[in-house]
Amino acid sequence: MIRRCVVVGGAGAVGRLFAERLLADGARVAVIDTVEPGAEPAGTHYVRGDITDLGFRAAADLGHADLVVLAVPDAVALAAVPGLAGTLRPDALLVDTLSVKQPVTAAVRTHLPGVQAVGLNPMFAPSLGFEGRPVAAVVVNDGPRVGALLDLVAGWGARVVRLDEAEHDRLAGTSQALTHAAVLGFGAALVRLDADLGKIREIAPPPHNALLALLARITSGAPAVYWDVQAANPEAAAVRKELADGVRRVADLVEHGSEHEFAALLGELDAQLGEHAPHYRELCARMFTSL
């Protein structure tokens, strides 16, 4: 049973998402965070503290917990793991919500080899909720509490997708780092072009509006989240290089190639989509209808 929970970073968006769902399931939830009291979900027990420099109250809550969720930036979680070795119960479950899994997985296996642990990565903005959305799960040290938690997350309506840590980071590099870099690059180009968004909004076709919508969502989010996606993922540098090379390839083809070669590129890209192309065409049609 998972009844006594601690959510480190529970005043933030991801931490609140977990804390509120655990509360709704009847668990007692303590929140440890560095901010002033008042941002934590109603009904939680709040302890102001630093997970990398534990005080007595925070250590006591951690020592009694069935479940500890680290909903903090990558660097904070990595710094905290060694200090948890003498604090967590032997039968406790440790969960991280980091966007990059290889470093934290290695740290947990080194410092907490006997503690059940799983890495979760909700692949969506916390405000959207779990229902119908994917949660990547990397089992670090397996055990009965790991299975119970994954069943619980699935019961919240999420699609739990199990991966190992290397596969997770490869896929996150493509699905997150590549995507965010493309949108941010688009935004940086708008700045350099000194684009008049008032006029653009009057005439923009759906693809441009879709990119502007993505840009607005990213720029309204927490910079630390998007920084970790780009800076912490070991796959991200190679992904950004491929993105830059792809844009350069299009430019070279248009400036020095032919329409026939351009058509060949579109055919190559369509072949990459393969059997998934109809799904994404239909998805695009629905998106553009709303735009």
Automatic annotation (TrEMBL):
Keyword annotations: Oxidoreductase
The protein's Enzyme Commission number: 1.3.1.12
Keyword Oxidoreductase: yes
InterPro entries: 6-PGluconate_DH-like_C_sf (IPR008927), NAD(P)-bd_dom_sf (IPR036291), PDH_C (IPR046825), PDH_N (IPR046826), Preph/Arog_dehydrog (IPR050812), Prephen_DH (IPR003099)
SUPFAM superfamilies per UniProt: 6-phosphogluconate dehydrogenase C-terminal domain-like, NAD(P)-binding Rossmann-fold domains
Enzyme class: oxidoreductase
Residue ranges annotated for the Prephenate/arogenate dehydrogenase domain, each copy included: 3-284
GO biological process, any: tyrosine biosynthetic process
Molecular-function GO term, any one: NAD+ binding
Origin superkingdom: Bacteria
Family stated for the protein in its record: Belongs to the prephenate/arogenate dehydrogenase family.
Protein name as catalogued: Prephenate dehydrogenase
